[in-house]
Write a structure and sequence with these properties.
Layout: E1 2-18, E2 29-41, H1 50-67, E3 72-77, H2 88-104, E4 108-111, E5 116-124, E6 131-135
Parallel strand pairs: 2-3, 3-4
Antiparallel strand pairs: 1-2, 1-5, 1-6
Helix pairs in contact: 1-2
Length: about 140
């Protein structure tokens, strides 16, 4: 798994086009203020170590939220951080597990529409910790 995390003033997205036939038809247009954002790329090799990947992702996200003093995060599936790609089924399972565990820990968690390309706008803060890459 690869994660690119941002400390943002806001993150806005709108569903643009459906990329997976089996997901439900949705149209979402959301703006989340004063949030962290994690672009998450689930890799093929994560299948064998799914539980470990979820646990480490949650630990890294908690660490990051603590560092940028946030209680809110957006999880965005972003399959462009590695040439190794998991199946869509594994990606949604991992991201959903991360979301559930983060919510169980008291964080406000938003997700973008899985199986869609989205148009988005992001306002990233300037500090060095406002942009962090993690490889799990």
């Amino acid at each position: 798994m690869k994660m690119l995390m941002f400390d943002t003033e806001y993150f806005w997205f709108e569903t643009f086009s459906k990329t997976l036939d089996h997901v439900e038809d949705v149209h979402r247009d959301e703006r989340i203020e004063d949030t962290a954002v994690a672009f998450i790329h689930v890799e093929a090799e994560d299948e064998e170590r799914k539980d470990k990947v979820v646990k480490k992702a949650v630990a890294n996200l908690k660490w990051y939220l603590n560092k940028v003093n946030k209680e809110r995060i957006v999880l965005h599936s972003f399959a462009h951080l590695s040439s190794s790609k998991s199946s869509p089924e594994l990606a949604i399972e991992v991201i959903s597990s991360v979301r559930d565990k983060m919510e169980d820990k008291g964080f406000e968690v938003h997700t973008t529409a899985f199986g869609y390309f989205s148009e988005f706008s992001i306002s990233v803060r300037g500090e060095s910790l406002a942009k962090v890459f993690k490889e799990i």
